[in-house]
């Protein structure tokens, strides 16, 4: 079978309806095609797996698919013609097809062909869908499709319109698995917009998480300036954005406003979503003196700038008497800058415990930013909860320490302060662990875990990560790439005020 460049998507389940007697029709599930790939053109013996365990089956399934593809390419025995038109009528394609084959896959085409009376069946598609329509029809014959990321949404539209459920589901999964894939102008924002339009909630949420967790990279890509105002505002309202600093986010927003020239209300709403209190006073002064965008919309954010200066000038205890420090202006995002945490490459993560230490600021307020907190971090590849540890006669149950070599253990990260201090009063610390993975040589944040002290608080921490295979996407040069972010919160002060 010929295959064009790009990813190859095959059906995960039966290509034909579940109630179809595939054995009687000489057809088999496409999920086993790859098993017989070396045997193309020759019969293959396999265990039947049916009611008679002693029976074997001689399979020529790939040869059958090859003949189906030849039927499509040569048009032998075709009994229907599809006339494909675009709205402007500039492009017309004629395709000879076999009504039985396409009807088995698409109930919509089955109905159209049944009601048709002999002449060519006219189908009208957008130019994007028309460009991939031949790939779509080939899928109906062969159960597989080669595609590039920029073709995914057009194929998904066709699969949805013609009710080819297996292809629609396969394309949704393909997009979710290829969010980090490199493409010339970026594709995740476009996939997000399409998923929101199509009502594919799972894909929409996957796209949004990827953009939020990799925003620092997105800001430097060509994809950023093309974001819709709706997607931009959705991102700006999130606290889990991964950026170097709030200043980096503001610089990206300034570029977006300059390039897209939105209406005044959109620009004002976007600028009001910036968390100016997370910028030190020197950066705020520089913004006010140098930013053309901020100068233009200064009145719309004047109150936020004033609050931010107050936040840095007064102690958090005093500030909490008059303002709600639980509002988003005073809540940090996932900042990569050194005052907020540290990157950590854990070598041989499947074998031994590892530890490190780093320092962060006590808090984002100017009253606390000069004070330092030292943090100790421990990674254990096979830690067991106390309830799962063996009990030894005459002694106590296993101590609260990482269990080395224990069967059934799971990875765990613990982050604790090196010393306690009276300065901690009124400050709580949320720890966030970013897990970096690699896809096709490109690094991206794959998981974000929030916890108070230990990742044990997240039951799914690295549940699906393969840390043993050196070629695992989770390992870069044999190391697990993590970034620990410590986010000081003044929320307890708000609670005490009430």
Task: Describe this structure as you would to a colleague.
The chain is an alpha+beta fold and 498 residues long. It contains 19 helices and 17 strands. A hairpin with a 2-residue loop joins strand 16 and strand 17. Helix 3 packs across helix 4, helix 7 (152-161) packs antiparallel against helix 8 and helix 9 packs antiparallel against helix 10 (201-213). Residues 1-5, 12-45, 392-406 and 492-498 have low confidence and may be disordered.
Task: Give a brief rundown of this model.
This protein has helices at residues 22-25, 61-74, 99-105, 107-115, 127-131, 133-142, 152-161, 165-177, 188-198, 201-213, 215-219, 229-236, 246-260, 264-272, 281-290, 292-296, 298-313, 316-320, 491-497, and strands at residues 7-10, 44-47, 56-59, 80-85, 92-97, 121-124, 144-147, 242-243, 334-335, 341-347, 354-361, 372-383, 410-417, 428-439, 442-451, 475-476, 479-489.
Topology:
Elements: E1 7-10, H1 22-25, E2 44-47, E3 56-59, H2 61-74, E4 80-85, E5 92-97, H3 99-105, H4 107-115, E6 121-124, H5 127-131, H6 133-142, E7 144-147, H7 152-161, H8 165-177, H9 188-198, H10 201-213, H11 215-219, H12 229-236, E8 242-243, H13 246-260, H14 264-272, H15 281-290, H16 292-296, H17 298-313, H18 316-320, E9 334-335, E10 341-347, E11 354-361, E12 372-383, E13 410-417, E14 428-439, E15 442-451, E16 475-476, E17 479-489, H19 491-497
Parallel strand pairs: 4-6, 8-9
Antiparallel strand pairs: 1-7, 2-3, 4-5, 10-17, 11-12, 12-13, 14-15, 14-17, 16-17
């Amino acid at each position: 079978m010929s295959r064009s460049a790009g990813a190859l998507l095959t059906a995960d389940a039966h290509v034909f309806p579940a109630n179809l007697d595939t054995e009687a029709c000489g057809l088999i599930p496409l999920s086993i095609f790859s098993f017989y790939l070396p045997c193309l053109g020759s019969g293959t013996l396999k265990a039947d797996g049916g009611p008679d365990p002693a029976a074997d089956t001689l399979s020529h399934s790939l040869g059958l698919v090859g003949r189906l593809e030849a039927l499509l390419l040569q048009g032998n025995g075709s009994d229907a013609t599809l006339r494909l038109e675009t709205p402007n009528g500039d492009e017309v394609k004629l395709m000879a097809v076999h009504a039985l084959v396409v009807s088995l896959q698409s109930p919509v085409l089955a109905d159209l062909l049944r009601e048709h009376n002999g002449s060519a069946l006219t189908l009208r598609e957008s130019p994007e869908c028309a460009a991939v329509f031949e790939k779509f029809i080939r899928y109906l014959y062969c159960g597989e499709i080669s595609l590039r990321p920029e073709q995914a949404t057009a194929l998904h539209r066709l699969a949805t319109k013609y009710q080819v459920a297996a292809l629609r589901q396969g394309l949704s999964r393909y997009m979710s698995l290829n969010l980090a894939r490199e493409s010339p102008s970026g594709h995740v924002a476009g996939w997000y917009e399409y998923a929101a339009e199509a009502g594919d909630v799972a894909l929409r949420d996957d796209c949004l998480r990827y953009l939020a967790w990799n925003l620092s990279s997105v800001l430097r890509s060509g994809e950023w300036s093309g974001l819709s105002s709706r997607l931009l505002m959705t991102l700006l309202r999130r606290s889990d954005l991964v950026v170097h600093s709030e200043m980096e986010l503001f610089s990206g927003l300034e570029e977006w406003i300059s390039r897209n020239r939105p209406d005044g209300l959109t620009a004002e709403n976007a600028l009001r979503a910036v968390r100016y209190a997370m910028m030190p006073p020197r950066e705020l002064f520089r913004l006010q003196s140098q930013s053309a965008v901020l100068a233009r919309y200064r009145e719309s954010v004047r109150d936020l700038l004033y609050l931010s200066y107050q936040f840095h000038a007064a102690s958090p205890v005093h500030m909490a008497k008059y303002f709600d420090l639980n509002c988003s202006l005073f809540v940090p995002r996932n900042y990569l800058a050194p005052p907020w945490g540290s990157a950590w490459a854990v070598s041989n993560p499947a074998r031994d415990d590892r530890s490190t230490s780093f320092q962060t600021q006590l808090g984002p307020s100017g009253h606390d930013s000069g004070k330092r907190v030292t943090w100790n971090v421990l990674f254990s590849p096979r830690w067991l909860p106390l309830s799962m540890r063996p009990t030894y006669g005459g002694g106590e149950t296993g101590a609260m320490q990482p269990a080395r070599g224990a069967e059934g253990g799971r990875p765990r990260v613990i982050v604790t302060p090196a010393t306690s201090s009276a300065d901690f009063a009124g400050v709580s610390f949320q720890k966030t662990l970013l897990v970096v993975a690699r896809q096709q040589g490109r690094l991206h944040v794959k998981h974000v875990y929030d916890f108070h002290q230990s990742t044990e608080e997240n039951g799914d921490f690295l549940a699906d990560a393969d840390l043993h295979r050196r070629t695992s996407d989770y390992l870069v040069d044999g190391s697990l790439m993590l970034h620990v972010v410590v986010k000081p919160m003044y929320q307890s002060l708000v609670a005490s005020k009430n």
